[in-house]
Amino acid sequence: MPIKWTKGDIKPPKDGNYYLIRKRKDYITIDVDYYYHSYNNWERFGKNEGWQILCWAKFVNPDVPEELKNKINCWFGGDPE
After folding, report:
1. 3-state secondary structure 4-42
2. 57: three-class secondary structure by DSSP
3. Furthest-apart CA pair in the chain: how many Å?
């Protein structure tokens, strides 16, 4: 499934886990373990360490075998969606 990226100057519409492409100086990373709370100031999200958010995308849980779908208790450290 393709990921839909949104420019970093647009805030996510709701709380949740997001992929982030971030830049600090000439160093660019992609990370997945960020939880965004809509009451936070998006412009400051990640900037406490000097990062600029270039793009973000909603975290997508991968497909799993059908016989295991209803048996998974934890997705990447959180509750199944």
Report:
1. CCEECCCCCCCCEEEEEEEEECCEEEEEEEEEECCCCCH
2. strand
3. 46
Reading the block at residue 78, the tokens are 């959180």
Residue 72 has pLDDT above 70, yes or no: yes
> In this model, does residue 46 exceed pLDDT 70?
no
Reduced to 3 states, what is the DSSP secondary structure of residue 69?
helix
Q: How many Cα neighbours within 13 Å face the side chain of 72?
A: 17
Q: Which one-letter amino acid corresponds to residue 65?
A: P
The secondary structure of residue 61, as a DSSP letter, is P
Q: What is the pTM of this model?
A: 0.71
Identify residue 19 by its one-letter amino acid code: Y
Per the listing, tokens 């779908």 go with 69
